Amino acid sequence: MSKSLIPAQRRERIQDYLSLHKIARTIDLCDLLETSEATVRRDLEWLEHEGILERTHGGATLSQRMIFEPEYQHRAQLHPEEKRSIGSLAASLIETGDIVFINSGTTTTQVIQQIPSNSDITIFTNNLNATLEMVAPGYHYFLVGGEYQSRSRSLSGSFAMENLKQIYANKAILGVDGFSLKHGCTVPTLTEAEVVRQMIERTMGQIILVADHSKWGVVSNFPVATINEIDILVTDEQFDKAAIESLEGQSVKIMVAPFNPASS
Asked: Residue 79 to residues 83, 179, 212: CA-CA distances in angstroms?
C-alpha cells in the first residue's frame, strides 16, 4: 500500500508525476500517495531544496532548465495559435499616444504584427524578425540598432544599449523564455538580457509580459525581472489556474487570451 511508502519512494513518485504533467496540485499528490497534506508539503519542501521543483500556491511546478537558446524557427513552431491570440490581446493594450518598447521573440512578433496600421503610437524594438515581415507599419516604428543575433533574429549589444538610453517609454511589452515565482523572468543570452533590463529601466509605466503556458516554470540563464516588476501577464487558456492565483498574490494582473484558431 502507498501508505507505507518511505520518503524516498514518495518523492520519486512526485518527480514521476511532475515529469509527466509539469504541474501538480497538493490535493492530487495526496490522492496519489494516499498520505496527508502535511506530509506532501514536507516532501515538496525537500524537493524544492534539491532544485527539482518550485512550490506554488496549492502545489508545485517542475523546474525546467533552458541552457541554450533555441533557433527562432523552432520556437515559432511551438504553440503558434496561442501566441497569435496572446499577441492580439497584448496589441489591444496599446493606446493612442503610447511610446512602447517591444523586445525580440516569437510572441512579441505576434504583438507587432497585430497592431493596427493606423495607430498614433511609437514603437521601439530590437525585434528584427518582426520588422522583416512587415509591409508598412503605419505608425512610428524604430529599430534600436545593434549587432545582429542570428538565433533570435534580433539586435543587441552596446549600440542598442546606447540608443535605448535616449528614450523613455510609457509601456514595455516583453517576451521571455521562462518565468517562475522564485526565479522571475529569464532569457538564455546575456545580450538579450541587457536589452530587456534596459527597456524595463527606461519604462515609466506598465511592464507587460507576454508568455504562453509552456513558459511557466522554465528557468533560463539570465534574469531580467522579478515577478514583482511585472504589472500584467497576457497568457493563454491553458495556463495553470494555481499559478494564476500565485501570480495574483504578487499583484500581477492576469489577462487570458481566448483561443482563436487561424482560419484555413
From this structure: 6, 17, 8
Specify the pLDDT at position 263: 42
Q: Let me know if residue 67 belongs to a domain.
A: no
Q: Which residue has the cell 546575456?
A: 190
Domain boundary among 62, 84, 99: 62
**Do residue 102 and residue 221 come from a single domain?**
yes
Query: pTM of the predicted model, to two decimals?
Result: 0.79
The CA distance from 45 to 163, in Å, is 45
The pLDDT averaged over each successive group of 10 residues in the chain (264 residues) is: 73 85 86 89 86 80 69 69 96 98 96 93 96 88 94 93 97 96 92 97 98 91 96 95 90 92 50
DSSP string computed for 59-101: EEEE-EE--SPPPHHHHHTSSHHHHHHHHHHHHTT--TT-EEE
Q: Give CA–CA dist 242/72, Å, rounded.
A: 30
> What does R_g of the chain's alpha carbons equal in angstroms?
20
CA 167 to CA 203: how far, in whole Å?
A: 9
Q: Are 58 and 42 in contact (CB under 8 A)?
A: no
CB 205 within 8 A of CB 195: no
Q: How many domains are there within the chain?
A: 2
What pLDDT is attached to residue 225? Answer: 97
Could you give the CA distance from residue 124 to residue 164 in angstroms, rounded to a whole number?
A: 9
Domain range spanning residue 51?
A: 2-62
